[in-house]
Amino acid sequence: MNLKLIYLLLFTSLIQINISLFAQEDLYHFGKISSEEILYKSCEFDKDADAVVFFDIGKAWFDLTEKGFELIYEKKARIKILKESGVDNANIEIPLYRYNDIEEIIIELEANSWNMKDGELIQTALGKSNQYEARENKYWMNYRIAIPDVKPGTIIEYHYTIRSNYLLNFRDWKFQTNIPTLFSSFEARMIPFYEYMYLLQGNVSSVQKKEFISSGLERQIQQTKFRDMVYQFTLKNVPAFREVDFIASEEDYISKIDFQLSKYTILYGGSVEILTTWPKLIKELLTDESFGKFVKRAESQAKKIINLDSLALMDDMGKINAVIATIKEKYQWNGITSRYASGSVQDLIKHKSGTSGDLNLLGVGLLRAAGLEAFPVVMSTRENGKIRYDYPFSHFFNYSVIGIRSKGKIYMVDGTDPLLASNKLPSRCINDKGLVVKEDEVTWLDLSQNEISEFRTMFNIEVSADGLESKSVVVINADGYEARNLKGKYGDDFKVILRDLRSKNYILNESDLRCNNYKSYSGPYIVSFAASVENNYSGNKIFISPFLNEPISENPIKNIVRTIPVDFIYPYKKSFESKISIPEGFSVKYMPPEIKVENENISISYTCSTEGSLITAKAHYVIKKVIYPATLYKTLKTYHDTIINALNDKIVISRL
Amino acid sequence: MKDQVSSGTRVFWFSFLLMLLIQNLNAKAKPSSAELIFTSTEISVNNGKMVTKSVFDLLINDRSADFLCKIRIPYSGIDKLVSLDASLHNADGSLVRKLSRNEITSQHNIDDYSLYEDQFVKIFTLRNSVYPYRIKWTYTIESSAFVNICDWTPVLMTEIPTRRATLTFISSEFFPVRIDSAGLLSTTYRKNKDFLLREYECEFSDYYDEEVFQASGTEHFPFVRIMPLRFHFETDGLAYSWKEFGLWIYHLNKGLNVLPKNEKEYIRVLKGEGLAELDLVRKIYNYVQDRTRYVNVTLKTGGLKPYPATYVSTNAYGDCKALSVYLMALLTEAGIHSDYVLLKAGNDEEDINTSFVSNQFNHAIVLVPAKNDSVWLDCTSDNPFGYTGTFIQGRHALVIGERGGSIVKIPALTTDQVALDRKGTIRLLANLPALVELEIEASGELAENLRTVTSMLDGVEQLDIIGEIVRVSSFSVDSINLLPYGRHNQRMRLKYTGTSNSMLKLFGNELVCKLIPVDLPNFESPDTRVTSLGIPYPTCVSDSILLNIPPGYRIMELPAGEEIISEYGNYDFKYSYFEKGILFKRNFTLNPGKIPVENYTAFYSFIKQIRKIEASGFISFSKI
């Protein structure tokens, strides 16, 4: 046994003696590191993990101050850095809301790193110079810390306390992050004056719950004596969440607990219901200055914004299109999503720019002024997560779109995206259901967009006399969301389009390029270009790509395992049609075989035919559904392999 | 169904005819969606203070330029924003409205790579719904300390023309400055009482897109750079020569190299090991690499003055300057002389203008001078000891010592240092995907990327990205196995297995195999190339791959070997045929250097020749 090993064993046993003094609950004591933690090398249920959370423990309670109740949040966490790529976990950001009188302040913060050096456990504490507070935007600050002395093998821990008067926003608790967590626990101590509901999601069945009345001293406000009601939630061995492709929001899937204020009691009498019923919530929205009343004012001021006489001459669809076009032309979305208007109608008219709430509630008002039955539909964007219909909380909603009922049909439109067709909702809004805000009516509308968006590419290819070059005219015709995506990618900038086309080995100049309908709210977006492509050849044989370099060549379905549904946002069809004229003296040696796959999930088709010196190749594939269950993930992967292989297959011609 | 087909066909031919029709029309230049009608900058320097007043008049022609109506004005603790006014106008200049105070928001302006910077930004939006419209804004910044006076390029965005721009620099005629400029319409000097007014005027409209391997210095933006020859920033400085400028940096850094006891003790123990000097330097460099991480915090001095060695020693992090100071302190403690080095690093960054003494730098490294092999050490990289990576190689650098600064060139990477060798087998079977097994030995940029990915990403993500980096064309990755490599080895080794459905295709009775192509950038054709080429370091790829003959088939056609020798590089390939297999060997080298745009056609013809050979690189097999 060499000296080093003896030394290590000696050290280990010393630590163990030391550690055995700790009781089980001491495992989670800040500042006390166990030998298991020191010797911990990799996460048993996630060997790839570059860091692991040993524990993440949170607590929230109410503190009575001169200003009334305030919320205190306390969090302590310990993380082991396993690989160099995990070192970034030592840079921590704590978002704090701070706007007008509402503020969240860090009142206590400490952090340490622990490293073994020469058989000794060295502690390095966070200093003043390792922490900074920065304003991120009008509402949010970001407290940033960089824990010192961190490398692979380091154990870091931090503990902070936040004081908050933002009682409406009881911070949620995430059991799951992008690294595995061995122990996550949250304790909420509630008082009778503020009633919250909690919503658990993710691995709900494994969450251990406890509820009890605090055994501590009674507290008293005026005549009311009370003890805290304690709720404890614990989850162990939580895997890292890494499934980030084809999902609306990780917020919909991670294990977390979300608290919502449902009612509060005013100390001097009375109470305010936050969680009520959907009808009550609708009523509140309708009477809200920044919602229902804003719509009314927009309706009354409509003639300042749009020519109502012209609208009167149009049919309902014409009115909808004209109003949406007016909003998109006159007002710019400032990127902020909101179900409410941010100011007055006058403000919007003056600034020509506003939140999604400003623009769409204005749209409701204008459409009403045009004589249509228009109403707001409140909803949650994909990023914001899904709505829980069994809990009537207004905070679920972070967006409003415009609903119109015409001739028994419901239409939903939005005025924020000038690159999108008038009759489409932006993809951010395709998220489950929206609630109609109309008196005496609780109606949920399906926000999914089931109309297939098409991306059609047509080719006219003339193979040069020697067969080495394909001179081609290509017309790309995109509609719906496919048009929106292409417009967003190219941005009406010929240089960007040229760069993209040249990266696909097309030889062309700016004068060979045309675009149509970039600014249109209805027609398809058309990009056409004339380009030449060099053909591959071998001896007498020339290999021609019938669809040039346009089909996908990389399978977008990458992962091996999928546990959550696959979300394509909207159904789409990609179609290709190519007419290839081959030069004299050549004959067709090989044409790709016919393919036909047709089922409820997907459609794939490929045909190739020849008539004299003209070859026609046609192909399409359709992603028919928006959401596929996780069980179909591998099938989708195989379908995409089929598509890639077929569409990139070559036609072979050879000299006679 | 029939109707759909025929309507689709109609659309096709309609679009096709439309295309032909528009093809014959004279192409009109697309008008700019916005124009900077006028911008002026007035800089006055007096009594060590600098006041900069900027004026902008921006015309928005259509809604695609609406994003420009959100204006951001950066400032800092040193560069204080003292006034800001803005207004919205119709195209004819008539006022629509003025910006009110409550429309302006302030926030920090922190780069993504930084933990914190005491940089701020004022943001406001002025938009009209009637096009075209104009936004005018003006602001004044007072600088209490400065090293540069200006690096003025009156271009808001490269795609947006600047119709007229003026710069006025007002200072005492005895205030010594160095001025560099290009692309100006006029330059006027006027005297006004005790002040000298230097006035510059220019315009900008001739934008072209970034080109492949665009040589540095070929951008044609108009600019004026003014550097004070005497300045005070923390300490007095001179910029008459690099020697003096370097001396100022030397004094700025002086006293930062104090080490705490434990670090001194570490060095004492290390010295006791009796290592040769170079090995000692290597060990200390590796210690810094292992102990520290990159964290940037910029405060007060605008990031010019490094944090002291104690800061890095305590925190085990810092930015490039702080980490360099720390390494130097450790080396000094070990009795080894080293120099602080500043440079402008980055593959996309233009090298410094060595004839214009000024603060042009964005990176700091350390030089350990030696008679034969001086060692350049970048403390922010995972690269092996002494390897001058693609980020810093072949660039001019300011080496700073107690006698001041001197410009030297960091050694360029050699062909050997960038070599990529791929050896292995491809298993071909009719009707089955081709299977490739390669042992890849990479150096240069590829090895750097592999090193970065292995240190920055974890398992699943790491494999994905490595697959992208070593991308073997037409193959999808099945597994990647990084082979153990010494940290001092400039090369990275890995085993790659992949599958390709498209490499081997059955066309009737013939099996055709397309080889793995050499990865060439998409060079522009000579009729569109505008700028000279600047290839910063060589490319050198060698392939040696054994392919089997698919069972039941025999070779029908094997391309003849080819060789191209050119001043721009070399390319050769050949096949050797064995009883059961074919050995494919290919070498490709692209030489580094600057190629004037006049010679681009010759260079392009070299590339085109390779492409042509590659386009015919197929092996055909016929059924026995």
What topology, given as strand order, has the largest sheet of chain B? 5-4-9-2-1-11-14-13
Ends distance of chain B: 45 Å
* CATH uppermost class of the largest domain in chain A: Mainly Beta
Please give the CATH architecture of the largest domain in chain A.
Sandwich
Question: What can you tell me about this protein's structure?
Answer:
The complex is a heterodimer of chains A (656) and B (624). Chain A is of the alpha+beta class. Chain A folds into 3 domains: 40-271, Immunoglobulin-like, CATH 2.60.40.3140; 278-446, Roll (C8orf32 fold), CATH 3.10.620.30; 453-655, Jelly Rolls (Sandwich). Chain A is built from 12 helices and 38 strands. In chain A, strands 1, 2, 3, 4, 5, 6, 7, 8, 10, 12 and 15 form an 11-stranded mixed beta sheet that branches. Chain A has an 8-stranded mixed beta sheet with strand order 27-28-26-25-32-36-35-34. In chain A, helix 4 (292-300) crosses helix 9 (356-369). With 624 residues, chain B is α+β, with helices and mostly antiparallel strands. Chain B has 3 domains: 34-227, Immunoglobulin-like (Sandwich); 237-409, C8orf32 fold; 416-623, Jelly Rolls (Sandwich), CATH 2.60.120. At the A-B interface, strand 6, strand 25, strand 26, helix 11 and strand 28 of A face helix 1, strand 6, helix 5, helix 7 and helix 8 of B.
